[in-house]
Amino acid sequence: MSNKVENIGNQYTSERNRKKKRQQKKMRVVRRRITVFGGLLLAIIIILSIMLVVQKHSNDQAAVERKHKEEQFQKKQDEELALKEELNNLNDKDYIEKIARDDYYLSNKGEVIFKLPNDKKSSDSQSSDSN
After folding, report:
1. Rounded to whole angstroms, what are the CA distances from 84 to 51, 61, 79, 88, 96?
2. Does 79 reside within a domain?
3. At residue 3, what are phi and psi to the nearest 5 degrees?
4. How far apart are the C-alpha atoms of 47 and 41, rounded to whole Å?
5. pLDDT tens, position by position, 75-120
6. What's CA 21's distance to the chain center, in Å?
7. What pLDDT, in 10s, does the model give residues 39-70?
8. 29: domain range?
9. Residue 84 resides in a domain
10. Where is the composition biased (Polar residues) (predicted)?
C-alpha cells in the first residue's frame, strides 16, 4: 500500500471542499468581527473607567472645597451675629456709659474715680508708658 492519499475528483468531494472553504471564510470573518467589536468594547470600557476615575477625583476636590466654603460661611455667620450684638449694645445707653467709665475713666458731674492697685487695665497702660 502506498502512503499517498488522492482526492477523488467527483462532484460530491468538490462541493464538500467548497463548503469547507466557505465555512472557513465565514469563520475568519466572524473572528475578525468579534475581534473588532471586542476591541471597541474594550476601548469603551477603558474610556469609561478613565472618565469614572477623573469624575471621582473631581467630586472629591469639590467636596473638600465645599466643606471649606461651608466652614468659611459658618465663621462669617458667627462674625455677623457678634457684630449685630455689638451694634445692639452700642445702641444701648447703659452699655455705652459702662464702656466710657471702664475704658476711658469718664464720670458724671460730682463723681470721683479712684484708681485701685488691682486694676489690670491701668497697670497695663502704665507699663506700656514706661517702655
Report:
1. 48, 34, 9, 6, 15
2. yes
3. -90, 5
4. 10
5. 999 999 999 999 998 888 888 888 887 787 777 777 777 777 876 6
6. 60
7. 999 999 999 999 999 999 999 999 999 999 99
8. 13-104
9. yes
10. 1-14
Fill in the amino acid letter for 31: R
pLDDT of residue 33: 96
CA distance 57 to 54: 5
User: How many domains in the chain?
Assistant: 1
In a domain, 72, yes or no: yes
φ/ψ region of 64 (left if φ > 0, alpha if ψ in -120 to 50, else beta) reads: alpha
Q: Which amino acid is at 66?
A: R
Distance CA 119, CA 86 (A): 25
Residue written as grid cell 475581534: 35
Q: What are phi and psi of 25, to 5 degrees?
A: -65, -45
Contact between 103 and 97 under an 8 Å Cβ cutoff? The reply is no
Q: How far out from the chain centre does Cα 87 lie? A: 37
Place of cell 497697670: 123
Give the whole-angstrom CA distance, residue 4 versus residue 102. 125
Cell numbers found for residue 79: 462674625
Neighbouring residues of 115: CB distance < 8 A, sequence distance ≥ 6: 122
